[in-house]
Write a structure and sequence with these properties.
The chain is α/β, with parallel strands linked by helices and about 425 residues long. It has three domains: about 80 residues, Four Helix Bundle (Hemerythrin (Met), subunit A) (Up-down Bundle), CATH 1.20.120.140; about 200 residues, P-loop containing nucleotide triphosphate hydrolases (Rossmann fold, 3-Layer(aba) Sandwich), CATH 3.40.50.300; about 120 residues, Orthogonal Bundle (434 Repressor (Amino-terminal Domain)). An eight-stranded mixed sheet has the order 3-2-4-1-5-6-7-8, with helices on both faces. The chain has 20 helices and eight strands. Strand 7 and strand 8 form a beta hairpin.
Length: about 425
């Protein structure tokens, strides 16, 4: 989402750090550019103005410090202010010590509430929070069935689903109250309520939402907002906050090509923190939002902690240790081991997303990296088209075998040859290491 903004801000700050001496005029000119880039990224005018004024005020003092290069000091000030703009510190969900913790998800239709409910349930399940899902959308056709299907996929029970709505005369607040009781009997420690999408200007539906909130007394009310909607997401957050009182926001579609104005404006306008961000369509694509680390990503400083967390969640430790032992052995890795390593890499997510977490890899550098995830699929298809004997000993691959593998994988002989050459180079490099 922040690709364009990251590239622009990194360019401005690089010019500042490249100078040994900075004048007040240099800082003013740089801040004028930053202001323009923030407004182009759809950041609220009031938020942008406050951001620039705070940086200017602090930067004037930084120019008088002799022990630190002024350019580096300004970069740190911009980083700190962006982190403050995004909420300052990471905000985690809090859980009740007794009884289930209820979390209410609200938002517009089409913002991704139902999918986000499943993503959040999966994450809480991994954190041993014993989640349960409540289907509280009687208006959208097949909404309950969708949640039941997602619940089945992640192994989380769903209450108040299609069977519970057949009574017809039951109000939504009564339905949700009953479903939460069922979840409590089933020993769920966390209950996530997926409410119907509604406009904040629809008084009747907002009254219904307040009734649901009063019925279940949620510990958190989280707005699921589509990050692609830009400034509209800020207006939506403001409307829901005034209507029901939000405690946090989950921004979806952060992997898209939106300009990022919503993420940079929501906290500044509403005071409500962003708690999680959706970074893909799969159920595992939900990450906790850390303002400090996100500020680092925007300025091209990477996010090593985020990279380690991704690796820890995706990589099979036993398989990794086995690969290491094989790589250290006299025989070295074969193509079967290479396939295992490839699948472990793919489990971490899209390659450019992973590379973006490395320090120094800014948006401009990422554009030049030929990291094509489809290419990895081609590589996987080539290796899977080989026999076990061929994977164990690639030296037996003559011309006819290579042609057969190319046909079986839907690729060309040249691609098969290229992969084998790259594999041999990697093998030599690992042995040297």
């Amino acid at each position: 989402m922040f690709t364009a903004l990251s590239e622009q801000l990194s360019g401005v700050l690089k010019r500042l750090t490249g100078r040994g001496v900075l004048s007040e005029g240099d800082v003013t000119e740089a801040l004028r550019e930053i202001r323009r880039h923030l407004l182009e990224a759809d950041v609220s005018f009031e938020v942008t103005r406050g951001f620039v004024e705070r940086v200017r005020e602090r930067a004037v003092g930084a120019l008088t410090i002799d022990t630190v290069r002024p350019g580096q000091q300004v970069v740190k000030l911009v980083h700190d202010e962006i982190a403050a703009l995004l909420g300052g510190a990471r905000r985690d969900l809090t859980f009740a010590s007794v009884g289930p913790t209820t979390i209410l998800l609200v938002g517009l239709q089409g913002s991704g509430k139902t999918t986000t409910a499943a993503k959040l349930a999966r994450r809480l399940k991994l954190e041993q929070k014993a989640p349960g899902l409540v289907a509280a959308d009687p208006y959208r056709p097949a909404a309950a069935e969708q949640l039941e299907q997602l619940g089945s996929e992640i192994g989380v029970p769903v209450f108040g689903g299609s069977g519970a709505r057949e009574a017809g005369s039951v109000s939504v607040s009564d339905l949700v109250r009953g479903a939460v009781r069922e979840a409590e009997k089933a020993r769920c420690r966390t209950v996530i309520v997926d409410t119907a999408g509604r406009l904040q200007i629809d008084a009747e539906l907002m009254d219904e939402l307040r009734a649901v909130k009063d019925a279940v007394k949620p510990r958190d009310v989280l707005l699921v907002a589509d990050g692609m909607t830009g400034q509209d997401a800020v207006k939506i957050a403001k409307g829901f906050h005034e209507g029901v009182g939000l405690t946090g926001v989950i921004l979806t579609k952060l992997d898209g090509d939106a300009r990022g104005g919503a993420a940079l404006s929501i906290h500044g306008v509403t005071g409500v923190p962003i708690v999680y961000v959706g970074v893909g369509e799969k159920v595992e694509a939900l990450e906790p939002f850390d303002p400090v680390r996100m500020a680092g990503r925007i300025l091209g400083q990477g996010d090593v902690v985020g990279l380690v967390e991704k690796a820890a969640a995706a990589i099979d430790l036993k398989a990794a240790q086995k690969l290491e032992q094989k790589a250290r052995s006299k025989r070295g890795m074969d193509l079967a081991d290479f396939l295992v390593a490839l699948k472990q890499m793919q489990a971490m997510g899209p390659m450019k997303q992973v590379l973006g977490l490395l320090p120094g890899v800014n948006a401009k550098a990422l554009k030049q990296v030929p990291a094509d995830d489809k290419r990895l699929k081609h590589v996987e298809a080539i290796v899977l088209s080989m026999t076990p004997a061929e994977r164990a000993d690639p030296s037996i691959l003559n011309g006819s075998r290579r042609m057969r593998i190319a046909k079986g994988s839907g690729t060309s002989v040249q691609e098969v040859n290229r992969l084998l050459d790259q594999f041999q180079q990697m093998r030599k490099l690992i042995k040297r290491m």
